[in-house]
Amino acid sequence: MKIKNILTIAIAILFIITTIMAIISGGGLIELGIKQVIGYEECNLEVRVPVSEEGVSEKIVDDTYCRNAQKRDLARNLSLLIVSLPLAILFYRRVRIMLKE
User: Fold this and answer.
1) In a structure prediction context, what are the per-residue pLDDT tens digits for the chain, which is 101 residues long?
2) Distance set, CA 39 to CA 70, 95, 97 (Å)
3) Which of 31, 42, 68, 73 is the most buried (most CB within 10 A)?
4) In Å, what is the CA distance from 84 to each residue of 8, 21, 70?
5) Where would I find the H helices in the chain?
6) In sequence order, which residues have a C-beta less than 8 Å from that of residue 99 and are 6 or more positions away?
7) Is the pTM of this model over 0.70?
């Protein structure tokens, strides 16, 4: 009987942890969506101007770092959500079944 109680508590703790992970990743996705809607840019896009011997040549704007940072944040939050949400549902069902017994 004690082992069953310990197992139930352990699974309940895992449920709490995975639920928190799902909430954090969902919040990150909402944050990325809101930033996209309002047009918020975290990067300081300074125009780089290469100087040649004859003077100033064409201006270069490099925003690949900003786009890659957004893609990286999106991938991180989606992967965390994809992993944690099914686990949270699984642990919730398991705890509910174990508490009814």
Assistant:
1) 788 889 989 999 999 999 999 999 999 999 988 988 887 777 665 555 555 556 555 555 555 666 777 888 889 999 999 999 999 999 999 989 988 87
2) 12, 43, 46
3) 73
4) 19, 6, 21
5) 2-38, 64-100
6) 8
7) no
